[in-house]
Specification:
Elements: H1 2-23, H2 33-46, H3 62-90, H4 95-104, H5 109-137, H6 144-167
Transmembrane segments: 72-90, 110-128, 149-167
Pfam family, one: Sdh_cyt
Keywords: Heme, Iron, Membrane, Metal-binding, Transmembrane, Transmembrane helix
Length: 168
C-alpha cells in the first residue's frame, strides 16, 4: 500500500513538472521545401560555392558504359520480342502474308541492311557480354586490365558478328 501511494505521488509530481512544458506553444515558423532550397542556393551564391555538376559532364569509364548498355540491350530485346509477339497475334492474316507485304514494299538494300544491323547487334552484344559475365562468375578476369581488354573484345566481336549476319 505504501508503495502504491508513493508511486502515485511521484507520478503527480512528475506530471506537475512536465505540465508547463506541455502547455507552451511552439512558435517556430514552418517553411516549405522551396523556401529551404532558396535559402541554400542563396547561401551558396554568397559563399561563391560552385553548383553540383550534372551527370552529363562526367566521363564514364568503359566498364560502366558496357554495364549500362548490357542492361539496355536486354530490356530492348525483351520489349522488341514482346511487341513482335503482340503484333503477330493482332495483325490480320498469318506471318507469311505479313512478310510478303513487307517484301512488296521494295525497300532499298541499304535500308534493309541497316534494319538487319539494328535488330541483330543488340542480340550479338548481349549474348557475347553475357558470356563475359559468366566467365566473371568463375572469378577470372576481374582485374581492371582484363576488364578493359575483354570489354573492347566484346564490342569488336559483337560488331563484326552483327555485320556478318546483316550481310546475309
Amino acid at each position: 500500500m505504501a508503495l502504491t501511494f508513493r508511486s502515485v505521488n511521484c507520478s503527480q509530481l512528475l506530471l506537475r513538472r512536465l505540465t508547463p512544458c506541455m502547455t507552451k506553444r511552439v512558435t517556430a515558423t514552418v517553411s516549405t521545401w522551396k523556401d529551404e532550397q532558396n535559402k541554400f542556393l542563396e547561401k551558396n551564391a554568397t559563399l561563391k560555392r560552385p553548383m553540383s555538376p550534372h551527370i552529363t559532364i562526367y566521363s564514364f569509364p568503359l566498364t560502366a558504359l558496357l554495364s549500362g548498355s548490357h542492361r539496355f540491350t536486354g530490356l530492348g530485346i525483351y520489349a522488341g520480342l514482346a511487341a513482335f509477339g503482340v503484333s503477330v497475334n493482332l495483325l490480320p492474316g498469318d506471318l507469311a502474308s505479313n512478310l510478303a507485304l513487307v517484301k512488296s514494299l521494295s525497300y532499298g538494300p541499304a535500308l534493309i541492311f541497316l534494319t538487319k544491323l539494328y535488330v541483330t547487334w543488340p542480340f550479338c552484344y548481349h549474348y557475347i557480354n553475357g558470356i563475359r559475365h559468366m566467365i566473371w562468375d568463375t572469378g577470372r578476369g576481374m582485374d581492371l586490365k582484363s576488364m578493359y581488354s575483354t570489354g573492347y573484345a566484346v564490342l569488336g566481336s559483337s560488331i563484326v558478328i552483327a555485320l556478318a549476319i546483316a550481310m546475309l
